[in-house]
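Section 3.1: Structural characterization of target chains.
Under the original work plan, the team committed to producing a structural model for every single-chain target entering the pipeline before any wet-lab resources were allocated. The record below documents one such target. The sequence was received from the expression subgroup and is listed exactly as submitted; it comprises 136 residues.
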Amino acid sequence: MTTPAVLPHVDAVEEALTEAGLTVYVGGTPTNTGWAPPDKFAVIYPDPGMAGRASLAGERTDFTTLVQVTCVGASVERALWVADRVREALSGPLTVAGRKAWQPEDQGGPPIQRDDDVTPPLWFVPVQYLIQSIHS
């Protein structure tokens, strides 16, 4: 039995969002010169997760991680549209090889905000999801 890893879980979130038709970035947006943001997209910010013991034997087979999906749009409506697509895409269990994953648990987030540090300004709303799985 192997210790659970965070990357397959992040990949599963990214795959679910991409399959929902969203443009998705992990850990931030591109920084290359000339990159222009699309009018709506999502950015995944994962934490490293935590491998927990499933029994007194000490085998670390349970896994929990918190993933923030920042929903971004050129308007309030577009950012909220992304949030709706994310919520829909993460409404069922994720597919993680060798693991049985629960349905992501929506943890909510702060109100939508405007980012005036970019031109043109963008609107964003971060939503956090608790991801959990066990060895299957």
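DSSP finds two helices and eight strands in the chain.
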